[in-house]
Write a structure and sequence with these properties.
Elements lengths: L1 H18 L4 E2 L4 E2 L3 E5 L2 E4 L3 E3 L6 E5 L4 E4 L3 E3 L4 E4 L3 E3 L4 E2 L1
Parallel strand pairs: 1-4, 2-5, 3-6, 4-7, 5-8, 6-9, 7-10, 8-11
């Protein structure tokens, strides 16, 4: 039981930290572990984004004057690394491993 509580606290911490780096964020964002975000542009996500980050930190980099738009019901698996030097749009109902 204490293991589940620890996982929930960790998820809440990383989710809250991630929301602060996004320009706009829909409902039900969940981040399961460490994430590094360098946002010099704009990051917007829809509802139900899950970023699984259990082994090594997920990484998202958005350059100045660019945007990363993430649709609804999107899943990013462990060790995801997204770098935007121009605008990127990830549609809804996508899973990226």
């Amino acid at each position: 039981m204490s293991s589940n509580i620890f996982k929930l606290i960790k998820q809440l911490y990383w989710t809250k930290k991630t929301i602060s780096k996004f320009s706009e964020c829909g409902a039900q964002l969940k981040v399961t572990g460490p994430i590094i975000i360098n946002n010099e542009g704009e990051i917007n996500c829809g509802d139900n984004l899950l970023i699984r980050s259990n082994f090594r930190a997920a990484r998202i980099f958005v350059a100045n004057n660019t945007s990363l738009i993430i649709g609804n019901n999107v899943f990013f698996n462990n060790q995801i690394h997204i770098s935007c030097s121009s605008n990127i749009k990830i549609g809804s109902n996508c899973a990226i491993a």
